[in-house]
Write a structure and sequence with these properties.
The complex is a heterodimer. By secondary structure, chain A is mostly beta strands. Chain A is built from no helices and eleven strands. In chain A, β4 and β5 form a beta hairpin. Chain B is 0% helix and 49% strand. Classes of the chains: A mainly beta, B mainly beta.
Chain lengths: 124, 108
């Protein structure tokens, strides 16, 4: 069965960086994308960006451009999201999700499997 | 960016009620609209993709409809496990996707 297992809780100081991992299993890792979504306490879902695993191409939300980097290691079926220059408003639960690629339409369509979430707290 | 607006922001309903949640896009997104359910402390779960396709394993009381700018998620007979927050998401404006602000379904 498809599973995405994320790394554990992080506590960082303002200005630091955090790198969250997401290990995929149960499917061919390069056949679909990986998206990252975050959720601040008591708030809604915020799309951060995604990566085409087969070629490493990325697309990021404009508000995070320059601070976020998404990568993958296809040898271990693991995706990574690094966020730099952390601020207090980056405090959130960070989720990875499989971005389903529809072969028939050649389109990345929806987020069908999600990781359990990684809480990141930014505080001095 | 395409804006997604859900209504209502919250609602109270009883077990057995028919519940409808609306999602409106700021411009036409064809049928590139997904719905997710999220329970407190849990990751979101995909319910509906491409406006009306039911994700495998999701109960048939959930249904989606719409195209263009206006979409609905309907729960035909609300069950106790359906009390949660529901989000729409557009996947038209690739590579930049956006979520609605969420609709919280509470017990009356």
């Amino acid at each position: 069965q498809v599973q995405l297992v994320q790394s554990g809780t992080e506590v960082k100081k303002p200005g630091a960086s955090v790198k969250v991992s997401c290990k995929a299993s149960g499917y061919t890792f390069t056949s679909h994308g990986i998206s990252w979504v975050r959720q601040a306490p008591g708030q809604g879902l915020e799309w951060m960006g995604w990566i085409r695993v087969f070629n490493g191409n990325t697309n990021y939300a404009q508000k995070l451009q320059g601070r976020v980097t998404m990568t993958t290691d296809t040898s271990t079926s693991t995706a990574y999201m690094e966020l730099r220059s952390l601020r207090s408003d980056d405090t959130a639960v960070y989720y990875c999700a499989r971005l389903y690629y529809d072969i028939l339409t050649a389109y990345y369509s929806h987020l069908d499997y999600w990781g359990q979430g990684t809480p990141v707290t930014v505080s001095s | 960016d395409i804006q997604m607006t859900q209504s209502p922001s919250s609602l109270s309903a009883s077990v057995g009620d028919r519940v409808t949640i609306t999602c409106r896009a700021s411009q036409s997104i064809s049928r590139y609209l997904n719905w997710y359910q999220q329970k407190p402390g849990k990751a979101p779960k995909l319910l509906i993709y491409a406006a009306s396709s039911l994700q495998s394993g999701v109960p048939s009381r959930f249904s989606g409809s719409g195209s263009g700018t206006d979409f609905t998620l309907t729960i035909s007979s609300l069950q106790p496990e359906d009390f949660a927050t529901y989000y729409c998401q557009q996947s038209f404006s690739t590579p930049t996707w956006t979520f609605g602000q969420g609709t919280k379904v509470e017990i009356k």
